[in-house]
Design a protein that fits this description.
Layout lengths: L7 E3 L1 H7 L3 E6 L10 H11 L5 E7 L3 H9 L4 E7 L4 H12 L4 E6 L1 H14 L4 E3 L10 H14 L4 E6 L3 H7 L5 E5 L3 H10 L3 E2 L6 H15 L8 H10 L6 E6 L8
Parallel strand pairs: 2-10, 3-4, 3-6, 4-5, 7-8, 7-10, 8-9
Antiparallel strand pairs: 1-2
């Protein structure tokens, strides 16, 4: 398995903005094939699926997992059953981006409609078809474990890690190696409540309106020159900006794919 580089950057502007001593950014968005936190686990996942020509995924519309998986496995057809989540222009941009991919067939609708379609196809399909877990969760993988260990080794134990929570795989992996971690919930309300009680170290059960998260991402862009997504990273930065008495040293995991013009 290819050793994917762990890229860490320090940002003094973000540190001043959040009123902390240091901010380190783990740039998972710069990983190959579109990047994003799933890229590490997907490499191992892809190697296990030799002979599979069709992958089915029930996730949000314009899913990051489908986006990266299609680039990693160009000869495999990806079927995405995408659920609306109120992502505004970012959701529309991701859906449009996936619709241009030659090996993605994307259906978009309500959670219940897409769930029914996903399960209907699961009953009908035979060999050569693989159905992923809901949301594209891949569990704990060795590559991400190694990245977390490497990050802690480079930064030391003083840094408090902050991640945006979608499936919850990353916060689970980090919490196994350090108690200094907070997961900021990003899903629709019902799922946020469920994850809040299921995941240790999860926080942010109430999140700002999308327009406020977009405003926050624009502020972050002015300081960093980077345009990250308003749904996941926008929720994370908005959460941090409203908190007083943050840990003095923060390690923020940038987990959305890069290069999405929303």
């Amino acid at each position: 398995m290819t050793k994917l580089k762990t890229q860490i950057e320090f940002d003094t502007n973000l540190a001043r903005w959040l009123n902390v001593q240091e901010v380190a950014l783990v740039r998972e968005d710069l990983l190959p094939d579109g990047g994003g936190k799933k890229r590490r686990a997907l490499e191992h996942f892809a190697q296990e699926l030799e002979g599979v020509k069709h992958i089915h995924l029930l996730s949000y519309a314009g899913s990051h997992t489908a986006f990266t998986l299609a680039k990693l496995l160009p000869e495999v057809m990806i079927y995405l059953y995408g659920t609306h989540y109120g992502g505004g222009s970012y959701e529309k941009a991701m859906v449009s981006q996936l619709n241009t991919s030659k090996n993605i067939i994307q259906k978009v609708g309500t959670f219940w409609a897409m769930s029914l379609e996903f399960n209907r196809q699961k009953r009908r399909s035979g060999s050569g078809h693989h159905f992923m877990r809901i949301g594209g969760s891949l569990g704990t993988d060795m590559s991400t474990q190694s990245a977390v260990k490497e990050t802690i080794g480079m930064l030391g134990e003083e840094f408090h890690h902050v991640v945006a929570v979608a499936s919850g795989d990353l916060i689970t992996t980090i919490s196994k190696q350090t108690p200094e971690v907070t997961g900021v919930l990003t899903q629709p309300l019902a799922i946020r409540i469920l994850k809040y009680f299921r995941l240790n170290k999860a926080s942010g059960i109430w999140k700002p309106l999308l327009r406020n998260r977009i405003h926050t991402i624009r502020e972050v862009n002015e300081m960093t020159g980077q345009t990250w997504d308003p749904v996941f990273m926008g929720t994370l930065f908005s959460y941090l900006k409203t908190k007083k008495n943050l840990p003095p040293k923060l390690c923020i995991w940038i987990t959305c794919p890069t290069g999405i013009d929303w």
